[in-house]
Amino acid sequence: MGNTLKMDKIEMLNGLYEAGWSNRKININIGINRRTISKYRNDWIKGKERSKEKNFPQLNTIHKNCQEQNQIQNAPLDRETKCPPGEVVYFQVPTETAPDPVEQSRSKAAPFDQQIKEKLEKGQHARSIYQDLYLEEEYRGSYDSVKRFIRKLQKQHKKLYARIETLPGEEAQVDFGQGAPTLKNGKYRRPWLFVMTLSHSRKSFEKVVWSQDVETFIRCHEEAFQDFGGVPEIIKIDNLKSAVLIANLYEPVLNPNYKSFGEYYGFVPLPCKVRTPEHKGKVEAGVKYVQNNALQGKRFEDDSLNDQNAYLRKWNRTWATTRIHGTTKRQVGQMFKEEQPHLKSLPETTFVFFKVGRRKVSSGDSHVEVKGAYYPIPPHYMGRRVDVHFNSKWVKILFNGKTIQWLSTIEKGRFHPDKSCLPANKAMDRNAWQSNLLKRCTVLGKNVRDWADLAIDDRGLPAYRSIQGVLNLTKKYSLKLLDRACCLAVQRSVFSYRLIRHYLEELSIQEQIQTCLPLVLISVDSDSDFGVGRTVPLISCSKMCFL
């Protein structure tokens, strides 16, 4: 028979039962006899079953026995139960839930408030926190007490997001919402509401459109830039297909037309993380502000949307720009006057759309053919495949997403005489976040830092996203493998996050195979009757090895 334990040890055992510890594990680590552990585990299981039963409605049974069957049949119905006397009646009895004594008194976990908060910030769950408190802080309360205390903390402290303030001219945010109902083909339909908001001053531009295609999306940008009188350095966008073909926080694939549009106007498009509206909270709030204050309860009859857009322009001048913003506590228009000189100047002409193709650079004369005309490419690209963007006025040639030539169109059958390229966009200053990424690369190894520097030289500001993604790969792969992968990438002039990840996957598989235990195969010598044993080392892995 097992020993009798004190209450504190019983509570400790109950906590270990909840954590899923086996009897053997408890015996090895705590030193309690296995019979004693089994005895109290049975009591714990019975206690849980009783607590489950308390959660179900209580049923009371009323038994009324009569001496004769005739009396049961002929008796009038009972006023309360509406059944003949003698029947067994089940009904729910309303019961008052007794107040939880733990809730009435101060929680036993309360003295460990700070420790619990720190562990919650690290991502630990209730069971893990309870075990740490028991082993590290000499906590002797129950697991349920810790769980209830954590639940209270989570209700009191909701998730907070840091508000990031930007410099004048640094950033704008873009988003779509729904406009006011507009009569179209005999029915009221809601157009799309485009909103661009300057992050510093909160100056906004609004326009309703019927489509979200890439051309409409870009024209809305252009009208916003013209309204602002300049272009911000960065534009945060959602992951709609007009702008982003493949959504990825570290290395998104942009729509070619939108990417070229950004290069033409000199801004950097930065797609936000999927399903994280807080990353562009300023324009999210701006869309709601327009919907609730300008368009609420409005209807328009003009399906061309001219009336609604004219109304939005007037409303913006009258109310949106003159209001005192709730966050900045300053007038939007006044802050915009301070921000406007920091915006980049507008180009002389608007952006022209183009078609997309792929060509191979001639090995003989270093030209590519576009619609029957020939355009020169620098000689070191001979024999390589390049992307070609062209329209009636321009031909742009790109290699690995980088513009290498931008020329005016010529007549069919002619060779272009001009070999000049458009100047590269002005590089942006590195902020503290960028500097920190490079410092981390230096700490990880020379090859990692070399790859990061070359990626920045090749791709500019978007490369920092790829660097961030590569650094996050250290959570899954060792530093040794990351260094080898970056070394391969530098040798092959590859500056893509996806390819680095691919290299790491391949190197990881190779490492697993090489570290497997060798097998010994006994072969038979054909010269003897039974054969002479000869050992041949094999490599064992997760897959079967066949000779």
CATH top level assignment of the domain at 171-342: Alpha Beta
Oligomer: single chain
What CATH calls the topology of the domain at 171-342 is Nucleotidyltransferase, domain 5
Query: How many helical elements?
Result: 18
Strand order of the largest sheet: 7-6-3-8-11
Quick check: average pLDDT? Answer: 78
Which percent bin holds the helix content?
Answer: 25-40%
Find the structural class using helix and strand composition: alpha+beta
> Can you name the CATH architecture of the domain at 171-342?
2-Layer Sandwich
Q: Write the CATH homologous superfamily of the domain at 171-342.
A: Ribonuclease H-like superfamily/Ribonuclease H
Outline of the structure:
The chain is an alpha+beta fold and 547 residues long.
Give your account of this protein's structure.
This protein has 547 residues and is an alpha+beta fold. Among the domains are: 171-342, Nucleotidyltransferase, domain 5; 355-408, OB fold (Dihydrolipoamide Acetyltransferase, E2P), CATH 2.40.50; 432-514, no CATH class; 517-547, no CATH class. It has helices at residues 7-18, 23-30, 34-54, 69-74, 101-104, 113-121, 126-136, 143-156, 214-228, 256-265, 281-293, 306-320, 332-339, 432-444, 446-459, 463-472, 479-491, 497-514; strands spanning 59-62, 89-92, 171-178, 182-184, 187-189, 192-198, 204-209, 234-237, 244-246, 253-254, 268-271, 355-360, 367-370, 373-376, 385-390, 394-399, 402-408, 518-523, 534-539. The strands form 7 sheets. A 5-stranded mixed sheet has the order 7-6-3-8-11, with helices on both faces. Strands 12-15-16-17 form a 4-stranded antiparallel sheet, with no helix packed on it. It has a two-stranded antiparallel sheet with strand order 1-2. Helix 15 runs antiparallel to helix 16 (463-472) and helix 17 (479-491) crosses helix 18. The longest helix has 21 residues, at 34-54. The radius of gyration is 36 Å and the shape is extended. Mean pLDDT is 78; it is low at 56-105, 421-430 and 519-547.
